[in-house]
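Chapter summary example: a protein plus flavin-adenine dinucleotide.
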Amino acid sequence: MNAKRVLVAGAGLAGSLAAIHFAQLGHQVEIHERRPDPRGTGAGAGRSINLGLSQRGIRALDQVGLLGPVLAAAAPMRGRVIHQRDGELDFQPYGCHEDQILRSVLRDDLNRILLAEALEYPNVSARFGVTLTDLDRGSASAGPVCAFAGDSGPYQASADLVVGADGAFSAVRTRLLRGLPADFRQRVLPWGYKEFAIAAGPSGEVRSSPDALHVWPGDDGLIVAHPHVNGSLTATVFLPLAGERSFATLTTEKSVR
Ligand SMILES: Cc1cc2nc3c(=O)[nH]c(=O)nc-3n(C[C@H](O)[C@H](O)[C@H](O)COP(=O)(O)OP(=O)(O)OC[C@H]3O[C@@H](n4cnc5c(N)ncnc54)[C@H](O)[C@@H]3O)c2cc1C
């Protein structure tokens, strides 16, 4: 096999995982990430976000040998518990088999584990705090070339293969489609989300059924809460961004409560 030069734009979940795969196949991998190095002091915390890891994610982690470390920090979710208005709890299992349960993980933790693993490979290098600004698709005889901007100035990097793992508003995708008769649609939901913590009880006990995703459905929005191994929960409130009952109207502590 000929080792290829693989340029990965974005070191989120997809980029870090792709980097590990290409490294394991023996390719030369360069990661270019807009955010600061998460291992340094300048790293931004970002939004926390709990993920429900399902079979696809579990299989992907298993394939690169990282399932053990991730599951060690993950709380199982055997189903969802719907909190009815009258206080009744309705448990809806995700499946009948052990491999159908979901795992609750913090996205940042998962990202750190994946990126740390990728950077263990001698054939993986990374530049942080750099933003992909342009992409030349290249031709049959010349590979793609990417342009970046960073604190130390603009630079270009060429590769045999570019992996656009730069998220929902991907610059790679925009540049890739430029001048081509390609169709692309993106729909942005008029909803937002905020997270809050539900601490464990005084003796560390869980306040509601453990091993489940908790859901409080509402007329205008909903709240979901993911469990943690320490008995606490992270709840996410989903509400419209504008309108009578929306985040726009939650401007005082009283209205938030
Ligand atoms: C509230 C919420 C809840 C969610 N819950 C779940 C869930 O339960 N289960 C689940 O599977 N998924 C869930 N998701 C989705 C999940 O977070 C995403 O699918 C996942 O993060 C996508 O990974 P990614 O690597 O493609 O992109 P990202 O994680 O967005 O990473 C993209 C990376 O590219 C970098 N980047 C961006 N632009 C550039 C550029 N121009 N140059 C260089 N770098 C760049 C960014 O800094 C970032 O590090 C949820 C998302 C949200 C918002």
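Key point: Residues 9-15, 32-35, 49, 51-52, 57, 107, 131-132, 165-167, 171, 193, 236 surround flavin-adenine dinucleotide (CB under 6 Å).
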